[in-house]
Every structure is written in C-alpha cells, then in structure tokens.
Design a protein that fits this description.
By secondary structure, the chain is of the alpha+beta class. The protein contains 19 helices and 29 strands.
C-alpha cells in the first residue's frame, strides 16, 4: 500500500484533514512559512533582478528535519496549503526544501475543509502555479524594499522603532486625511420641525416633517426663521394635498466577502478585525462537532468574490423551501456581481455545509465561533431568498402655505428579512414598519404637538475598523489577506490609536504621514497603491513579469530616497508627560512606545532608568490594603483587575470590572460584565442577598484560574 505525505499550514487544519484521509496518509503542518527573507538585512539583490535571499526561519530547523524524514518515507507528497498567493508560495518553498518537482501534480487546494471537498481535491491535483508564486514574491520584495529602505531613514530623522510600508502608509494617510477633514469642518446651524398629527377623528397618530413653503424645498437656518414658520402654522389647518400609495421591493445583501464580514462583525458583534479573522480561521480549519466529527464550518475566509458554487446554491434553496415555504424561494437563483477590483479566486464566504444550522452547534463551539458562524449562515441563506416586499405611503401636507411630508412603510412579505437584516438602520426600520398610515386627498388633520429642534451639521465620522476596511477596499489598497493585519500594524506602531473603537491619528501619525507625502508621494498615494495592486494581479494572471513590475517601481523610488536623505531635517518629538511622579528621582514620568506597547519611563535617562507599565485606574480601592484596583493583563493577554500592589504585597484580583458604586446591601465591591449586550452587576460578596436577584447566564462551570 503506497504511503502519502500531505503538508498543510496549521496544526488544527492537519488534525481535521487527517480524519478524512485513509491510514496510508500522513498529514503534517508547516506552521506557516518555513523560509523568508532575513531580518538582519535587505535580503533582495537589487542589482540582479531583485533576486530574494531566502533563509530558513529561526526555530523551524527541527520541523524541516521532521518533514524531510517523512518525505523520504513517502511514495507521494501533496502540498495542501491555503488556496491563495501566500499558500502557493509556502507550497513552492516546501517543494524546494524537500526536493519535490513542482511541475508534477503535487498541489491540492480546497475552498472548504469538508470530507467531500478535501477528497475531491486530491483527484484534481495540479502543478504549482508559478504565476501565483511570482505575485506573492513581487509583493514580498516590494514591501521589503519600502520597509527596509525608508524605516532606517525614519529612525534617523524622527525616532527609533518607526516603520513605513507600501500599504500601511497609505492606510495611515486615510486616517490622517479624515482627521484633517474633521479639524477643518465648520458646523452649520439648521432647524427641523416635526408636527404630530392625527386623522379627523383624533385617531392613528403619526408624524410629518417640515419640507418647505409654497411647494418648494427650503432649509431653516436660524431660530428667527424657525419662529417665523411656527407663527405661520399656529392654529392653521393641516390638510392632505396628495397621498400616494405604492409598493417597493428590497433585494437581499450578497454573501460575505472578507471586507463585508469584517464590517458586519464589527457593527453587529462588536468584533475588531483581528478577532473576526482569527475566529473565521478557526471555523475554516475545523472544529469538533459531537455527532459529526471534525469539519470546517465555513469556506475560505480571505476572498473578494461573490461567486457561489451551484451545489451550495441548490442546497440553500432546498433548505429555504423546507424551512420557510416555497414563496421564500425566488423563481431564479440570486446571483451577485463581483466588484471590478476583485481577484475572484475563491467563492464568497458561506457555510461549507448549509444544513448545519447555527443553533445545532451552540454550546459545541466557542461563543465567538457560534456568533460569527450564525452571522455567516444567516447572511448566506438570506442572500438566496426572495425579496422583501413593502407597502408604502407618501403624503404631502400643507398648513397655511407651509409644506410637510409624511411617509409610512409596512412589510407585506418578509422575504429574506425573516432571516437577516444588513444593518442596524434597516433593523430599526423593520422593527417600526408594522402599520401603514391611511390618509386621503383633502383630508383635514388634527394638529398635535409641534416640535422645533436646533441642529448643527456634523463633521465626517472618524473611521472605525469596519469603515476603514471598507475605505481600503473602495480605494483598492490592500487585499482580503491584509486588511486586518494592516490595521493592527498602524495601531501597533502608534500611528493610530483607538478611542471608544474609533481610530484617531497620533501626533506621530501626522508627522510620519506628512514626511512620507512630502518625500515619497507615491507610497502614500491611494491611486498609485491601488494601481500597484492591479499590477500584482496582472502577475498572478500571467500578464506581467514580476521583475519588470518591481523594476518599474524601484527606479523612481530610489531617486526619491536619495533626495530624502539630504532634504529631511531632524524632527524632535516631545514625549507626552503623565501624572506619575518617578519614585526614584522625583521627575514627572513620560509615556514611551516600546516593543510591547506604551509604558512609563523617567525622562532622566540614562541617569535614572526607572520604567514601569501604564496601569488604568478603575477608581475603586482595594478592600484588602487600600491600594488602587487597576486594569491588568494576564500572560495569555486576558484582561483582569487587581490591586496595584499585586503580586508583591497584595493578592486581591477580579476577572470582572469593578464599579465605583458599592453594593447597597452590604457595601462590598460591585462588578459589571456584559451578557448579550446587557450590563449585569454582581456583588463580590457571594453571601450577599443582592446576588439572588441576578439571573446568571447558563454556562459550563470552569475551574477558577489565577491570572
């Protein structure tokens, strides 16, 4: 019996696939890349066609030895890394290391980690696609050149630890430009008037909004103008000039791409982009479902395509008909057009097995996995359902020459909204769309409360991770595989900070962006960056040579670099002072940025080398020693709350956030946590009777762990 070796990227994926294949298959994981460019030098020979100098990644030597040993005993080796550029490059590196002829059918790819998809892929094994490898190699070389050529200049001219990147610099500029729009914005005053009205009998109340006068739309720009309108309609008869009843139809949103998944998971679940992608990775690679075994629950999660496999579409239509009724199945299957910048290499993100409904896996996967799978399943099923239908009413109402408009919408057929609504605004509309207002032409209405309100135009909103992802996609910068990591990078480099989930550029972000714009215009130019992505796509499609693409970029870039070395003057950034006083020398400590984030340091360095972490004070005193209870992180990165004197002289800690208000029953510390978007407060005194009133969510008991 022949012996086969299968190499994938992750151990969890290896574990899943191993259960699908026969005993004569051995599945091993490369744990990502095995070779890469060296960290200590550029690693790209710019004089000889930008040849990369690949070396074994530190710590991977032992794994490579194991793979080589397994390869010697194998009759056939299959490379089953992820189905994208990065995965193709990893397979190419493995083939080189193990001496595999990459022109032979050694490469297998699958869009979903299910038994049927995996076993079918081995029947369609192919050679390694060198166009994909070249596209990845071009991206890697370009990013290395930009990073390793500009970063030392930033260290010299601004401060150590800074970096520049082909995509990260353009993304930072998006955030900086938005902040400048906000800073330059001048609010403009305007007023609205809402009239509460009823029919002739004083029943069926509804609202009408000011539109204008004498049939022409008009804005109210001041209180004086508003008062003049109010005077006109005072004691006036409100009469229905015209009323139109109609119908409208709304089509379901398409299934998720990487970008839209990040956006909706941010809006609906409050997930950061990194959390969304790591959770999706777990769902794709495989989870153990009792009764079904280990399988990948979703298709590949790095995609910009809206394409759906015909068999998945047929399965969805069958499920919809059985679960909701034939009227919920559209006569023709729903198809969605993929965007012009999309690579369209994979399907949209969907459940790998449509019949696995979210409720069937609840409690069998992690909370994050269940919530994200539910979102993906509902979005996909809804995308294959019939349109939602609405009855509409639009009325023009006049009071002494002043025009008001009233609208009303009511659901006549739920269609896809029986499963999924795209945004919070739509959810509110669906919630309120219960009854259609009935009016007639010439009907006199009863006037109720008239409410004037002053408003001011607002500046554009700061980006959050979801809206920044959309802006990156719309601008054509980055790709599905880089959205989350790029945002993490610009935050990690302190170019951007999160304030209540909104992204705001730091002073450093402004300085570096301006420096880049003045000296490396192309690097932060959105159109240039988007065009570079298109050129990389052309390499993947075999329409462009990767060396020529890099060469065309490098010539002008090198000229800009040489000019910048002499034209950029040293920029001094003043450290931000804190309220903390150095206990060793009495100076006011400053906030520094280190490898692991911000920390407090004494400005007296090197005479005084005092440094300590920044602790977030909760405003609650420790019940054991009277010290401050501060926010900390465990070794695994989990947030908890402990006495500032912990662990040296005090061992008090809490997993849930303490609040300043003490328990009204016993005076002990109260804590707050959020369960399904609801705040739950609990007394830390387990014997306190106030705890009896708290309904605790059902959950498996977990052994208490020390932080």
């Amino acid at each position: 019996m022949p012996n086969y070796l299968v190499i994938v990227e992750s151990p969890s994926k290896a574990k899943t696939i191993n259960k699908y294949l026969g005993k004569n298959y051995t599945v091993m994981a490369s744990v990502g890349h095995l070779r890469d460019l060296p960290k200590s030098k550029l690693g790209v020979d710019v004089e000889h066609d930008f040849k990369p100098d690949y070396i074994t990644i530190r710590g991977k030597g032992e794994l490579i030895t194991k793979l080589k040993k397994a390869a010697k005993n194998a009759d056939k080796i299959y490379l089953a890394t992820d189905p994208d550029r990065e995965g193709e490059a990893i397979s190419w590196h493995i083939a080189n290391l193990l001496g595999i002829d990459d022109s032979t059918p050694c490469r297998v790819t699958f869009n979903a980690v299910t038994k049927s998809a995996v076993t079918a892929s081995f029947k369609e094994a192919r050679a390694i696609d060198h166009n994909l490898v070249d596209a990845q190699q071009a991206r890697r070389v370009l990013d290395r050149i930009v990073g390793y050529k500009i970063s030392p200049l930033l260290w010299e001219k601004v401060k150590k630890g800074l970096s520049a990147g082909r995509v990260q610099s353009a993304t930072t500029k998006l955030v900086v430009d938005r902040e400048r729009e906000i800073m330059a914005f001048e609010p403009k005053e305007y007023w609205t008037i809402v009239a509460k009205l009823t029919d002739e009998k004083g029943k069926h109340p509804f609202e009408a909004r000011y539109y204008g006068e004498n049939g022409k739309k008009k804005e109210i720009g001041s209180k004086a103008e508003c008062d003049a309108v109010l005077e006109k309609i005072k004691n006036a008869d409100f009469v229905v000039d015209s009323v139109t009843y109609g119908k409208k139809s709304r089509h379901a949103a398409p299934p998720f791409t990487t970008s839209t998944l990040i956006q909706d998971a941010g809006r609906k679940l409050g997930f950061a982009s990194k959390r969304t992608m790591s959770t999706a990775q777990g769902l794709y690679e495989g989870v153990d479902i009792p009764g079904r075994g280990t399988l990948g629950l979703i298709t590949y999660m790095r995609t910009d395509s809206l394409r759906i496999a015909p068999e998945a579409q047929a399965a969805a239509r069958e499920l919809i008909g059985g679960k909701f009724g034939k009227e919920y199945v559209p006569q023709k299957p729903n198809f969605y057009k993929t965007g012009k910048n999309a690579q369209d290499a994979h399907e949209a993100i969907r459940p790998s097995v449509v019949e696995i409904e979210p409720e069937s896996i609840k409690g069998k996967v992690t909370s994050d996995q269940y919530r994200l799978y539910k979102l993906i399943w509902e979005r996909f099923i809804a995308s294959q359902m019939a349109n939602a239908e609405y009855n509409t009413m639009n009325a023009d109402i006049t009071a002494n020459g002043v025009n008001f408009k009233a609208t009303s919408t009511a659901v006549s057929f739920m269609g896809y909204t029986a499963v999924y609504v795209e945004s919070s605004d739509d959810e509110e509309e669906e919630k309120n769309a219960k009854r259609l207002i009935q009016l007639e032409n010439g009907m006199k209405l009863r006037q109720g409360e008239i409410t004037p309100a002053q408003h001011f135009t607002e500046p554009p909103a700061r980006y959050n991770e979801a809206s920044l992802t959309k802006a990156m996609e719309d601008s054509g910068i980055g790709r599905p595989s880089t959205y989350a990591s790029t945002i993490s990078t610009i935050v990690g480099r302190d170019y951007v900070i999160r304030e209540k989930k909104l992204l705001k550029p730091t002073e450093l972000g402004f300085i570096v962006t301006d420096l880049m714009a003045a000296n490396f215009k192309d690097i932060v130019d959105l159109d240039f960056t988007a065009n570079m992505e298109k050129q990389l796509d052309s390499v993947e499609e075999g329409q462009a040579d990767w060396v020529e693409v890099v060469s065309d970029f490098y010539g002008p870039f090198e000229e800009s670099l040489e000019k910048a070395k002499t034209s950029i003057e040293k920029i001094k950034i003043k450290d931000e002072e804190s309220d903390e006083i150095c206990e060793k020398c009495g100076r006011r400590m400053v906030i520094k940025m280190g490898r692991y984030g911000k920390f407090l340091a004494c400005p007296g360095f090197p005479e005084c080398r005092n440094a300590k972490p920044i602790l977030k004070d909760t405003g609650v005193a420790c019940p054991k020693c009277g010290g401050r209870i501060v926010e900390k992180k465990s070794q695994k990165g989990k947030k908890y709350f402990a006495c500032e004197n912990s662990p040296a002289t005090c061992d008090f800690y809490l997993w849930d956030e303490p609040i300043k208000t003490p328990c009204p029953k016993c005076g002990s510390i109260m804590t707050r946590k959020y369960v399904k978007k609801h705040s739950v407060t609990t007394c830390t005194n387990k014997d306190c009777e106030s705890n009896a009133k708290v309904e605790k969510p059902a959950a498996k008991e977990k052994k208490k762990q020390e932080p």
